Amino acid sequence: MTLPGLAAFTRPMSASLERFAQAKLADLDAAALRRRLAVTVRGPGAEAEREGRALVSFSCNDYLGLARDPRVVAAAREAAARYGAGAGGSRLVTGNHPLLPALEARLARHKGKEAALVFGSGYLANLGITPALVGPRDLVLVDALAHSCLWAGARMSAAAVLRFPHNDVAALEALLEQNRTGRERAMILTERVFSMDGDRGSVPEILALAERYDAWTLVDDAHGLGVVEPGERAPLEMGTLSKSLGSYGGYLCASRAVIDLLTSRARSFVYTTGLPPASAAAALEALTILEAEPERAARPLRLAQRFTARLGLPEAESAVVPILVGTAEDALALSAALEARGFLVVAIRPPTVPAGTARLRVAFSAAHGEAEVDALAEAIAALR
Ligand SMILES: *Cc1c(COP(=O)(O)O)cnc(C)c1O
Known about the structure:
Layout: H1 15-30, E1 40-42, E2 47-50, E3 53-57, H2 70-83, H3 99-111, E4 115-119, H4 122-133, E5 139-143, H5 148-156, E6 160-164, H6 169-179, E7 186-191, H7 203-212, E8 216-220, E9 236-240, E10 250-254, H8 256-265, H9 267-270, H10 277-292, H11 294-311, E11 320-326, H12 328-340, E12 343-344, E13 347-348, E14 358-363, H13 370-383
Parallel strand pairs: 3-12, 5-6, 5-7, 7-8, 8-9
Antiparallel strand pairs: 1-2, 2-3, 4-10, 9-10, 11-14, 13-14
Helix pairs in contact: 2-10, 3-10, 4-5, 11-13
This protein binds pyridoxal-5'-phosphate.
Pyridoxal-5'-phosphate (PLP) is lined by residues 121-123, 126, 147, 149, 191, 195, 220, 222-223, 240, 242, 250.
């Protein structure tokens, strides 16, 4: 038997692929839109260490400070010791360890729904939900500022996808009026709290409209759960275990029949490995804490409102406050100036946000102290 020569392992890179990647990177650099990874170690409190520097982070979605809570960490550790590090298979094969149905029952109860389904992440949940419910003969209406994964799910469904101006219920109604007839099923996709703007979706108005046009509303509650009062529930309530619950994973809460249908038909549920037991155990413990400690849950919004009052900004509606800057370059410069003063506030650039609206996205957590919030407000006031 002859072994392949060394050359087989060091085959040259594809020249056209290299040219493509280099040219694309040059474009991104020129537009200040290239993204780079920075190694970050979080905690204790709201601290984050980056490149050897301790910063106070205002860029974490761990709104309730539960990712490092000793009770949550202990639950994860015990689950890993008992059930192992990974699920070992799809949930429909052998990956459905007992913590997952337990977590689903608790999520459903928390949301006042009949049932829930846990996915590998919030992104995977949104990739699976819409295509399992609508198809080529149907209509999907999506808020212009909806998260990338809501759009991805809508497009994967192969339905006609229309964008409605952000939170514009009148425009949504006009689109339904013009496009609903002749379409079998229709969905409306929105968010309870918009991830990059921190404002709240007009959920009650949309639900009323949806009823009139027989459309099914999917509300993404990624930034609402545990932080803002829930308000009216949609028939489809999805979210993530990765933000206020401090863990990892995603979920949908809905009726029993819808959950049973998705269990069979959501491709991002069926064809992927189940959530690791430790992630489910951590989320379950976090949900218990969230329900038991309302003062913790109230804190991020209160701190956000303290911050907006100090800076004379419109009152915060959630734990997320945008500081609009404009160009990507200016947003990066403001972020760097804050980092030099000990604050981690990451710049958000297109295509995450529309062109010309690059910003700092300030996220508040129960782990922040009032003094930290005031210090950030002062630093921003001085730099703007
Ligand atoms: C973060 C986020 C998601 C994705 O959740 P992951 O669990 O992080 O994949 C979905 N929708 C919105 C609005 C989000 O902000």
